[in-house]
Design a protein that fits this description.
Elements lengths: L18 H19 L5 H15 L5 E8 L2 E8 L6 E3 L3 H9 L3 E3 L20 E8 L5 E9 L7 H15 L7
Antiparallel strand pairs: 1-2, 1-6, 2-3, 4-5, 5-6
Helix pairs in contact: 1-2, 1-4
């Protein structure tokens, strides 16, 4: 299936936030995520809830979701947005690189990357991206968390810090601090 240039009717274009607005939005999202997932243990329910809450609070999130590690590759898991790539090889794209290196990837302009290898264009409306590796309690890679924006330069160290903390807290079974 080829992606369309036209933004789907059910998706709002991204809106970037200033530093203070971004921090405040993440702080509110963290409170909502923690309140909803405090005693939750089911991985898919956690992923779906994190997607929903972050997409609700962060207006520059165009596509948000998890790619699960399955048989040495990534397969699309819970997400919100347009159709995601169904399968991603560890050798391809920003998600593959995050899985391969087990390190967060920040990309200011995905179209500046080599298409088909360094970036996989699942949706041409995506302009910038952050991908965070997700580990289980044994420090084993179980997924990557992918967020795209329809604007360039949407993601920075603030996103990285908050997302890494959220994912660590809810997938390594570390107890919540009061």
């Amino acid at each position: 299936m080829s992606a369309s240039q036209e933004m789907p009717y059910f998706i709002n274009p991204s809106k970037n936030l200033g530093v203070d607005e971004k921090k405040a939005a993440y702080e509110m999202a963290v409170m909502a995520i923690d309140a909803n997932l405090d005693s939750e243990s089911h991985m898919i329910l956690k992923m779906s809830t994190i997607n929903c809450i972050l997409k609700t609070y962060l207006p520059y999130y165009y596509w948000v979701g998890f790619y699960l590690v399955h048989e040495g590759k990534l397969i699309v898991g819970p997400y919100q947005g347009t159709l995601g790539c169904l399968h991603i090889d560890f050798s391809k794209g920003v998600c593959g690189k995050a899985a391969r290196e087990e390190k967060t990837q920040l990309v200011a302009d995905v179209h500046a990357l080599a298409q088909g290898t360094a970036h996989i264009a699942c949706d041409p409306n995506s302009q910038s991206e952050i991908v965070v590796p997700v580990f289980d309690n044994d420090k084993k890679l179980i997924a990557v968390f992918d967020v795209d924006s329809s604007l360039k330069n949407s993601f920075d160290e603030i996103d990285q810090q908050f997302l890494e903390a959220i994912l660590e807290r809810h997938f390594t079974k570390r107890p919540l601090e009061n």
